[in-house]
Amino acid sequence: MTDAREAVLGRVRRALSGAHRGSPQEVRRDYRTTRPVEDPVGLFCERVADYRATVERTSGEGLPAAIAAAARGAGATRLLTPDGAPQVWSSALGDDFQLVGADADTAALDQVDAVITTAAVGIATTGTIVLDHGPGQGRRAATLVPDVHVCVVAERQVVDDVPAALSRLDPARPMTFISGPSATSDIELNRVEGVHGPRKLHVLVVPED
What we know:
There is one protein chain. This protein has one domain: NagB/RpiA/CoA transferase-like (Rossmann fold, 3-Layer(aba) Sandwich). It is built from 7 helices and 12 strands. The protein has a 6-stranded parallel beta sheet with strand order 1-12-7-4-2-3, with helices on both faces. Strands 8-5-6-9 form a 4-stranded mixed beta sheet. Helix 3 crosses helix 4. The N and C termini lie far apart (about 65 Å). The model has no long low-confidence stretch (mean pLDDT about 85).
């Protein structure tokens, strides 16, 4: 043990022998700030699915019908669409659903089956959706209390990795990072979904505008 310790300390001494005492050496660190991927949208969809979320690519024209189908498939009847969401979404839901106002209080939110939002950014390498709770995204409570979250992500919003996502976000705004349905395995390693947020996440990816 002593020989090994002396060997390590000897290497440290030799490495420091050329250093100027009292003035730290300048160390160059050239970090990569991005990790480009060949097909960020395809990778994003793959990683979102890995988190046990439902992900679907659809056309802009087919989006309203896809939203209605996602809500219907989740068994949702009471829906919330935040202020700033396209009006065509609400129109497409028709009489099959009961729409709840975006200003619903906590008690009313507890009765909402699904929330339908836009997003701020999608991160390809992690399959993460980021909400900054701007127009169409609603306040944080509205996206955490309902059991189902249907989120619309435009292809232009998908970036390669976390640094690229942060460069698009305003640090002064509230942000929610979503990687799949809310889940925990804290108790006896048994996965339980819907603990801290929606139990079901349905992501609809639409092409460039």
